[in-house]
Amino acid sequence: MPPRIEKHSKEYKVREIQKNLVKKARLKKDYFKALKEEGYAVPDKKSSEAKLSYKELKAQNAVGNRQKLDEKKELKKMRGRQQHDKALQRQKYEQDKVKEVRDKEKQRNVRSSKVTQRTRSGQPLMGPKIEDLLGKIKADDTYTK
């Protein structure tokens, strides 16, 4: 095998990692030995916490991911509800506006029919006209102060 391929092979990398680990362990051992000879206190070994197994890690990640998904779904539902509520509110507002316009149109037609009443001989009746003018005056704020 050419040296380039050998250098980038999996086995070569495994060997290098093992060499580095052995070297670090030897240096650490020599360092602690030198400390002990010079009279310094050797630090205690760290108690290595038991690492979680692959299955436990996977289970924890699954639970966390499931919670995130549930939160996203809930957020999406809430947005959907808000949009639905807005649409209903807008629709109700438009219906109210249309109803208001129709009511005004009816009132206008009733008022106009009252004002345009005539006698048998074709003369306009003054009573409904005067009533209409009085109603306008009462409804206007400038005259009710």
TrEMBL record:
Residues 63-145 are annotated as: Disordered. Residues 110-122 have a biased composition (Polar residues). It comes from Lachancea nothofagi CBS 11611. InterPro entries: Fyv7/TAP26 (IPR013730). This is rRNA-processing protein FYV7. Residues 82-108, 129-145 have a biased composition (Basic and acidic residues). Belongs to the FYV7 family. It holds the Pfam family rRNA_processing.
